[in-house]
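#data-curation
PF: Archiving a pair of folding outputs for the training set. Convention for this channel: one message per protein, sequence first, structure tokens after, nothing in between. First:
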Amino acid sequence: MQILASLREVFTNASAWRPGYAALARLLAQGGGHPPALAAKALQTDPGQTGCAYADGELLPLLGKQGRFIDQEAFDPERAEGHDA
């Protein structure tokens, strides 16, 4: 989310990629992910607001509620919604 906030400083229309982040959010809501300390993410801070309505209204609150991280590498394009098999 920090990267998204930084990108939006230059590319004001940048937004979180909904198909990918929705899949990751589902995994996180189901108990996936890990505590920040397990992946050297303890120093990453909540950007507060990214300026992206989806990230600010859904993703950041979920991360805060869960108190966990889920890595982008957990995204499996074969299992994403809308994937043609």
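PF: Second:
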Amino acid sequence: MAIRQLRQSIKVQNSVTRMLTYVLLSAFSIPFVFPLLWLVSTALKTPAQVYVSPPIWIPNPIRLQNFVEAWTAAPFTRFLMNSMFTTFIPMAGDVFVSAMVAYSFARVRWPGRDQVFSLCLATMILPGVVTLIPTFIMFSKLGWVNTFKPLIVPAFFGNAFYIFMLRQFMLTLPSGLEEAAKIDGASTFQTFLQVILPLMGPALATVAIFSFMARWNDFFAPMIYLHRPHLKTLTLGLATFESMLTGTGGTPGLVSTRLHLLMAITLLINLPCIAVFLVFQKYFVRDVILSGFKI
């Protein structure tokens, strides 16, 4: 009887603890969810509902035409194609090349491996602004300014952070995999391609998420290297559209009547990032847990 009461007491305590945890997490999430809800609400409003006091959170009527008007107000289809080109190709380079380098650091023994890995990690300490001017001068002398090459080619030389994450994951795999593959006559590259790579789904998905988010939302690099209007990405196109609404690049005062269009195009541009994270979040959480303990 005492054991049953003890178990019930522990169960009640666990339930209360879980409930308090959910309440605290919900409270802490409000500052992050609030701007997103305001963005969605404004994107669906009519112009007359934008600056109503008190604010209207549920638009009535819901105006889906805002998305069509915002998308056609500027060549966003062209900007979308540019963003896809400068996102998915570098993302493939980030995933495959970083995985290949991480395999060399984690599973292949060669002289100076640990020292080179330490040097690779040291590059993460160096701020990007320090190398900005030398990198721009180099790409300028190569004639790559006003092309997509500065946004694509560096991805095929590896990324220190992605290499570190993938190496940590590879260290959790059984050490006998290479020996079994070697007995079957597989080369080092065949072992990586046919044995190790298929087991790294969660880690590769995590790197793909990071790479997609970083490159899809990148504003600084396209602003530095892409000056021609037809080369603009979605982030640059959004900045141009915003300047049109605020009067710096178009008719003054339009922001007061067309803010709903700005919110609509902002929501459209960010929808892929939200969708990618929601679809692959289980792989993201699993890889962070697995790769965070073994160094």
